Structures are given as C-alpha cells and as structure tokens.
Amino acid sequence: MAAGVFLFVAVNLACLSVSGNLVSGERSFSIDYKNNCFLKDGKPFQYISGSIHYSRIPRYYWKDRLTKMYMTGLNAVQVYVPWNFHETVQGVQNFTGDRDLEHFLDLANQTGLLVILRPGPYICAEWEMGGLPAWLLQKPNIVLRSADADYVQAVSNWLAVLLPKMKPWLYVNGGNIITVQVENEYGSYFACDYNYMRHLRTLFRFFLGEDTVLFTTDGNTDKEMKCGSLQGLYATIDFGTDTNITKAFKRQRKYEPQGPLVNSEFYTGWLDHWGDQHAVVDALNVSRVLGEMLTMGANVNMYMFEGGTNFGYWNGADHDTRFRSVVTSYDYDAPLSEAGDPTEKLLAIRDVIKQFKDIPSGPMPPATPKFAYGFVNLKKVGNMSDLLNTLSPLGPVKSQYPLTFEEMKQYYGYMLYRTTLPRDLSEPTPLISPLNGVHDRAYVSVNGVFQGLLQRDTVLVMNISGRQGDTVDVLVENMGRVNFGSKINDYKGLLSNLFVGKDVLSDWRIYPLDIDGAISGGWPHSDGQGSFPAPQKEPSLGPVFYMGTLQPNGLAWDTFLKLNDWTKGQVWINGMNLGRYWGHRGPQQTLYVPGPLLSTTMPNNITVLELENAPAHQRVLFMDRPQLNVVGKS
After folding, report:
1. 169 Cβ partners below 8 Å, 6+ apart?
2. CA distances from 16 to 12, 42, 90, 374 (A)
C-alpha cells in the first residue's frame, strides 16, 4: 500500500468514530466535512454502488437485476435519467411502461438499495445525443449545455417536470435517493459556462430543497475538475483500473479539501464501437483497485454494473477524428452481462465487498434460462422503394434542396430522399457529397436497382449510371447522434447538396419513414403474406424487408439472434425494435432477445430490414449464448 494511501485511511477512519446527535426517527443524509465522510441518519456511511440504466433493460427484468446487485453486497445503485427517452416530442412526457422511473425507484427501495440519481439534463452514457432530445436542434444555432436562452428554457421546462417527481423519493422524505448529480462531466465540454451551471444549481435547489446533497462528476484532470465543479456542488472524480488512485484522490482533494472521497464512475469495462475489438477489463484488476479504494474509506460507484442493451435507435456515437457509432449491445464487460447474468467478475467483486461489510445471506439469483430456438426461414417482403405508401402514409415533402431529419421533425431511424437524374449517365459518373453532408449513411438506388453507398467521413464519392429522368432514391440512416464532446449538435440526413458530376441534384421528394409505427401495427405479417416457404436462393441488394415467424414451443426464454451472412440492418420481433446488426463490421454478432418479448402460444413475428446485401439463404438463427467479440470487415 502506498504511503499516500495510509494518509487517506487515517483521515477516513476518523469518520468511523463519529456519532451524530439525531432526533429519533428523523431521516437525514449529509456531508460531514470535519470527518471526511457522508452521514446517514447521523452515522458515518460509505456507499458501494453500481450503475444500472432502466432505459436499457426491459421493465420485466428490473427486479431481477436489482436483486442480483443487492446480493453482491451493494448498498446503492446509480441511475441516469435520459431526457430524450421521456420527452421524444417536445412538451409531451412519458413515464409509463419501460419509462416508469418511479416504479424503478420503488423496486430499488423494496430491494434495500439507495439511489444516486443523475438526472442530467445531459448524461453522456453512450446514449443517443447524450440524453438530450434531438428536437433541441430545431434551433439551428443553439449552443447546447450553455446559458443559451433557448437551451436554458427547454432545460428549465424539463426539470420543472422531472424534479418535483423526484422530491418525494429523496431519502429525507422517506425515499431512497441520497445524492443528486447536477449535469454530467461538464469539465469535458468546451463551453465551461459557469452561468449555465449556476442556473442548474438554482433549479435543483428550488425543486429539491437546500439540504439535498448535490454533486458533480468529472474526469481525472485539472481542466475537467476546474470547469466541471462549482461552489455548492460537491465535486467527485471518476477513473478506472489504469489510474494511480492516490494521485486521483489528491486531485479530488484539490477541489474538495474536506469531505468524503468519491469515485463516481469506477470503470468495470468499456463500450464498443462498430469495427473495434470488444472491450474487456480484467476482473482481477477491478477487484484489486476496488479493494484499495474501499480500504481508503472511499465511496465507489462501479460503472457499469449491468450495461444492458441499446434497443431501437438509442445508441450514441463518438466523433474524435471520425464518426464512430456505438454498437447495440451495452454489455460493457460488466459484472452482470447484457442479459443480466452473474459473471466471474461479479463473484470477484463480491469477495472484495465481503471484507468490508456483511453481505446478504442466501444464494446469488441464477442466470435467466436461455434457449436456442434454431433457424427460422424468412421471405422477401419488398424493396424499400416499393413500400413507401405503407411506410410513409403522409407522403413526401417537396423541397428544392435536401432537408435534415430535424427540419422534417423525424429524429430517429431512416428517411428516404427521391429525385431524378438531370441527364443521361451512360458511363459510371461520380455521385459526390462534397461537404461531407451525409449523416450518417446513405444507400443509393436508381430505378430500384442498388448502386452503392455514401458514408460520413469515409465514403464521399460513389459511381452511378442511368438515363435522364430515372428515379434516384437515397435512403439515409441516422446511426445515432454524438454523445460526447464538442460535436453533440449532430444533425442527421442530407445536410448539404449531392452532386452528379458537376450537376447539383435538386427538386427532392422527402419521405419521413415510420417503419416502427407500421411494424408495431402488425405490418408486414398482417398483410396476408401467407405461409413461409424455404428461403430464396438468390442474394438481394439494397434496402429490402424480410419477414418470418418463430413458432411457439411453450417457452419464452431469453435468446440471441444471429444473422449469418447478412450485412447490416435492423430487426424487430413482435413489434419491438431490437436494434442494429452489422455482423460484417463486428464485433457484435448477436442481438439480445428478452424472453418476455416472446409469446408461448402465438407465432412470433420477425421483421428484418437489410440495408445492403442479403444472403442467398435468407434465414436467421436463435442461439442460447451471445457472440460479442468477432471483428468483421471494415
């Protein structure tokens, strides 16, 4: 143990001898600056917490995951609130079903877990736009995460809805929320706008009261701590297993000379991008560093304890040198797997915690049962271009030049841009996005024949051919908005003109596509498509829909869907959007299918949108285990 560690141990052990003068029955949670610790009901308190995101886990499984966390020995969980998950349409909030935050808090309370709440408004979390709603971008020059008047007004409106819901759940009010974070890792953002942070502090104090412990979290550098911290908000730090913990906590001490040591994000794993190796963090390193921090008396939150899944279109993206989209799985190499199963890392963590506190008696709840349902044949429904009456029931918007997703008020998924060739192209002719205006991927067809794709930052030119007047369809995919850094103003669609040679393409018909609405309404299975023959023996190019059914066998167990030899696309089962697949890129090869989604008595409807190249044998495979670590082609 380093000499510096002994210093911290001595300081924090002093906390253990404190006894408070508390009125009997009164609940309190506060910071004891004199003795460098938290006080819960007047007594010294150290939390051992794990991050879990209700937005990434089906509601059916919330209790299961929380129970496993409690049985590991945790006494708290840390929870993000994604603003865009609850307010996808401006002014319309949804707190029902999988968005029922108060039900989640109640389950945590019943389980015996305290809550560290991180309501944003920005959360990062590798989540779409860092949790900020895309409708903010309707203001073209808005400066997000700043004192910009339009942004501050929207934030104030949202927090005026969210925070009053949270107030009854504060520990002092009989609930289980002990601390509340203001913003998130603000020091990592370029703005460094203290007026914005002061405004948030005022809002949080107004709605939650003067005694609530408010805190900030920032990375382990002076710049991040300086721009992210503010007087009246307790400054905490985050770091992983590759950090000198004595130096890291000295940095926290520089900004909080007294009070508890807190690592708000101790990284048990890491995220994956398409085309990367699957991230792995060694369990021995995690348990070793955890033990060292707990020995110092530090409060630790493990990020993540269960990662879960980026269902639908909720994955975020990064943009440092180029745009990189986060994969559908948020397994994170966490102690609980994507499917909520205990891992060796969890058992190693539990063995560490046992050395510091009593852990609940009884067995760890087992992994949920898995089943390999086998192969299911699919059949072609049709090309995207031929299905617009179903997928875009309101028809196109006409515009001389392209409009963005935000201008069309379609924020997620896909949109189709249609125009005609201005002249004969007898030879292959460059189709160019000269200003890198394709955000993020465009699938190009001429008269229904797939010609190729354009891709943000990497493929700005492709060749097409055809005759004057031929129909050009450009299907643009939003691959998830940037969730971190200075580029979170991430507009989607065609942001600038496309050229054919030297000619600007114009006179567009732009189709907003409500694919999810059509599928949740029963399409394409409700269209009397008939029985499902053996799959076609020919590949199909371009954006094409396929359908099939998984027949019930009396089981509704978790399973993992693999699309062997398919290229890239989206999958729905029984109307639920499981997320994106991109096996050719990897590393993720399977999609997690929660058992409660499946019917034991009715056919389970499978819909696949393949964007590039379907295999000759059009079938999918249901397996009993995930494959998350196979890097494909670039």
Report:
1. 102, 105, 109, 115, 175, 176, 177
2. 7, 12, 48, 56
Catalytically active residues, by annotation: 185, 265
Token pair of 127 as six digits = 């989540």
Q: Encode 362-378: b = buried (16+ Cβ within 10 Å), e = exposed.
A: eeebeeeebbebeebbb
Judge contact between 270 and 239, C-beta under 8 A: no
DSSP string, 543-590: SEEEEEEE---S---BEEEE-TT--SEEEEETTEEEEEE-TTT-S--E
Tokens matching residue 494: 């065609």
CA dist 496 and 442 (Å) reads 13
Q: Residue 311 — pLDDT band, cuts 50, 70, 90?
A: very high
- pTM of the full structure: 0.95
Asked whether the CA dihedral 87, 92, 97, 103 is positive or negative, the reply is: positive
**From CA 318, how far away is CA 326, in angstroms rounded?**
8
Q: Rounding to the nearest 10 degrees, give the CA dihedral for residues 621, 626, 628, 634.
A: 0
Scored b (16 or more CB within 10 A) or e, 575-584 reads: bbbbbbbbbb
Structure token pair of residue 80: 């993000």
d(C-alpha 169, C-alpha 106), whole Å: 9
In tens, the pLDDT along 94-108 reads 999 999 999 999 999
Q: Is the pLDDT of residue 12 over 90?
A: no
Handedness of CA 406, 408, 414, 416 (dihedral sign): negative
Give the span between the Cα atoms of 287 and 278, in whole angstroms: 20
pLDDT at 632: 73
* Token pair belonging to 363: 């067995």
What pLDDT is attached to residue 517? Answer: 98
What are the pLDDT digits (tens) for 188-247? 999 999 999 999 999 999 999 999 999 999 999 999 999 999 999 999 999 999 999 999
